[in-house]
Amino acid sequence: MLLSTVLNAQPAFRHVYSPDRLRIIKTDTIIKGTVKYVRKERDGDWHILLKNKIVGECICQNKSTIPKVIKACEGYQKKFQRVHAGDVVTMQGVYVWDAKHRWYEVHPVNKLVIIKKANINKK
After folding, report:
1. Model confidence pLDDT, tens digit, residues 78-96
2. Of the candidates 41, 103, 33, which has an alpha carbon nearest to the alpha carbon of residue 69?
3. Model confidence over 55-66: pLDDT tens digits?
4. Is residue 13 packed enough to be buried (19+ CB in 10 Å), middle (13-18) or exposed (0-12)?
5. Peptide bond into 19 cis (omega under 30)
6. Residue 108 and residue 13: Cα distance in Å, rounded?
7. What are the start-end ranges of the H helices in the chain?
8. Pairwise CA distance, residues 16 & 18, whole Å
9. Contact 115, 33 (CB under 8 A)
10. What structural domains and CATH numbers belong to the chain?
11. For residues 90 and 31, is the Cβ–Cβ distance under 8 A?
């Protein structure tokens, strides 16, 4: 798929700092699942792993000291509500195969909705 096609469909993709490792499967998809964990990455992204083994990458959520990440994140202003293990969510964005990590993911996530908060009360 042509990069221009992806950029027209999902402008946030221009803020992905290393798009050459990503193989576009679908320019717009919605994935629903239960969050297994959320990890803050060195590149400023959040990795959200769902129990169905799909990863969502919320880009540019934290500061990074990596120069090419800083450049890629310039002008990106979307901040997502923090999710937690056990939350049921939908993630919308570009569905890709990440050749570096060897997994399928939504990258970048353009919309993140918490459908049901995890029950964090312990008895």
Report:
1. 999 999 999 999 999 999 9
2. 41
3. 999 999 999 999
4. buried
5. no
6. 6
7. 3-9, 67-73
8. 6
9. no
10. 3-116 (2.40.50.140)
11. yes
